[in-house]
Amino acid sequence: MDIVVLVKQVPNTTDVKLDKNTGNLIREGLESIMNPDDRNALEFALQIKAEYGGTITMVSMGPPQAVDVLSEAMGMGADKGLLLSDMAFAGADTWATSYTLGKAIEKIERFDLIICGRQAIDGDTAQIGPQVADFLDIPQITYVTDIETVSNKEVIVKRRLEDGHERVASQLPALLTILGGANNPRYPNIGGLLAACEENAPLAAWNAADIGVMVNDVGLAGSLTHVIKTYVPKFKRQGETLEGTTAEVVRQLIQHLGKSEGASACKAVAATCRLMADTKQEGI
Ligand SMILES: Cc1cc2nc3c(=O)[nH]c(=O)nc-3n(C[C@H](O)[C@H](O)[C@H](O)COP(=O)(O)OP(=O)(O)OC[C@H]3O[C@@H](n4cnc5c(N)ncnc54)[C@H](O)[C@@H]3O)c2cc1C
């Protein structure tokens, strides 16, 4: 069973600050860690490898220091690490990130399963897994909480729904996105960490040319979305108590609803209330 695990290096905080001018995340001065959901993804990959054999290749797109998460993953038991790093990849939106990861996985060729976290704690979009699966034209199962069985041809998993779980089977190759907390990721062992730091460690770095992409198709240049403005929405809750008889309160409410900007739903409610108030007067 050959497994590719996608892993992202993220700042060790969920309180992400944004650069007001560029709209990009401010990462300077923050400790970097392996994205938490990715630890769960790797843990499942390690369990599958223990039962069925095979190899685990970690893939990360990021700056040179993202090699740290690959080393950590190898300390946990992954076999190989592949860092996709190139100035041309900088500023990538989720589409350009998925395209770059997809092109690298295409070059790896042999894989039965791709496992990634559901969501990164900095970008927070949860788009990468589904987009990579779409790019590679393979089935995807999201929100996975348990991997029940894997055979040469099929994987059966449990995935979370809003109000329960469902069991889903997919042919292989397939991509799974794993929910945080789905398992208890193991700690890296010292021997594995030391081996990952040795010169002959199976760590490779690929740039744009290595994966055969044009620089205009990746990074900021290849991004389909561009940040126009970033801001923290302000929620103003100004409660107001309407006084008077029921009919007076309803009339005041109608006036308020009628004033709300362009809200056709509000106007419909206002019209209904008006009708009720006119017909029932005090009785609403
Ligand atoms: C216009 C624009 C510019 C941006 N510029 C930058 C920038 O300069 N630098 C920057 O770091 N980010 C930048 N971003 C954010 C970047 O696009 C996202 O962080 C990235 O695409 C991943 O999305 P996400 O964090 O929401 O991941 P999610 O979709 O939430 O992640 C889900 C899973 O996908 C996998 N995954 C996600 N990202 C990677 C990765 N890089 N490598 C391997 N696996 C991964 C992990 O398994 C993760 O758990 C930019 C975004 C936009 C819109």
Description:
The protein is of the alpha/beta class and 284 residues long. The chain folds into 2 domains: 216 residues, HUPs (Rossmann fold, 3-Layer(aba) Sandwich); 38 residues, no CATH class. 32% of the residues lie in helices and 23% in strands. The chain is built from 7 helices and 11 strands. Strands 9-8-7-10-6-1-4-5-11 form a 9-stranded mixed sheet, sandwiched between helices. It has a two-stranded antiparallel ribbon with strand order 2-3. Strand 8 and strand 9 form a beta hairpin. Helix 2 packs across helix 5 and helix 6 packs antiparallel against helix 7. The longest helix is centred in the first third of the chain and has 17 residues. 33% of the residues are buried. Flavin-adenine dinucleotide binds next to helix 1, strand 4, helix 3, strand 6 and helix 4.
Question: Care to count the β-strands?
Answer: 11
* The CATH architecture of the largest domain: 3-Layer(aba) Sandwich
Task: Report the average pLDDT across residues.
Answer: 89
CATH superfamily of the largest domain: HUPs
Rg estimate, integer Å: 25 Å
Heterogens = flavin-adenine dinucleotide
Total number of helices: 7
